[in-house]
C-alpha cells in the first residue's frame, strides 16, 4: 500500500481481523471474518488519501456530513473555510463535507498490541488544523478487537481555555459478500428523521420514526436522524451473517446511507446532526475536560 503502514488487529477469540492505517487518517481499511471482507472497499485507499473518496471506516472530523456554507461561528469566533486548504473538501454542490482529516498523515500511535491500537492527534500543535477548527484539543482514538467486536472509542480533551464543539462522526461502509443486495435486511432504532433540501442540508422540519426492520431491495437511502438514544442498535443481516452497529455513548445523531451504485450500507455514528457546527445543537467539551464517544461493530 505504497508508503502506508497498515496495522492489523486480531481477535483472540475468533478469526476476525481489523486493519487500520494510522498515516492515512486512521482509516479502517478492513474488517475480515475468516477471509470474508465486511467493509466496502469503494475506490480503495489511494483514492481516499488522494481524492478523499471515502472507504472502509473513515473518521469524519471535526464535522460529519455537510455544512451549509463556507463559514461558521463559535463563541464569537468566525471561521472561513477555503476548499483545498487545510483538508477542506467539497461535495458536488460546493459545500464542505466530512471535515478535514480525510487521509491525514500525522497521527501518533501511542499503543499497539495484538488486539488494540491507540493513536492521537494534538490540534494545538498543528496550525493548519487550527486554521479550520480553532479549538486546541487532543483527539484520541482507541480501537479494540475482542469477542467478535470492533470497539472504537473517541476521546476529545480540551487542552486550553477554549471549549471544543463536538460535531464529528464515522462512516462505516458495511457489506455482505455472497448475498445479493436485494436480500439484505436492515434494522434501525426509533429516532427522529430530519428531511433535507436538494443540497443535503436539513430543512428544519422533523418527524418521529419508530424502530423498523426492512428488506433493502433496490432502495436508495440517504437519510439523517437525531434523538438517537444511547445504546441504540443498527443492524445489517443476510445469509448466515449479522453485523450490528451499537451507538454506545456520545453519538446522538445518525446518517443511514445505502447508495444505488455500490453494494454497501452505512450506519454512521454522529455526535451532532448535519450542519450543527453552523446552526448549533451540539455538545461542547469544557476547558480542561474530556468527552468520550463510543460505538461498536459486532459480527455474528
TrEMBL record:
<dbReference type="InterPro" id="IPR008183">
    <property type="entry name" value="Aldose_1/G6P_1-epimerase"/>
</dbReference>
<dbReference type="GO" id="GO:0030246">
    <property type="term" value="F:carbohydrate binding"/>
</dbReference>
<dbReference type="Pfam" id="PF01263">
    <property type="entry name" value="Aldose_epim"/>
</dbReference>
<dbReference type="GO" id="GO:0005975">
    <property type="term" value="P:carbohydrate metabolic process"/>
</dbReference>
<protein>
    <submittedName>
        <fullName>Galactose mutarotase-like enzyme</fullName>
    </submittedName>
</protein>
<dbReference type="InterPro" id="IPR011013">
    <property type="entry name" value="Gal_mutarotase_sf_dom"/>
</dbReference>
<dbReference type="GO" id="GO:0016853">
    <property type="term" value="F:isomerase activity"/>
</dbReference>
<dbReference type="InterPro" id="IPR014718">
    <property type="entry name" value="GH-type_carb-bd"/>
</dbReference>
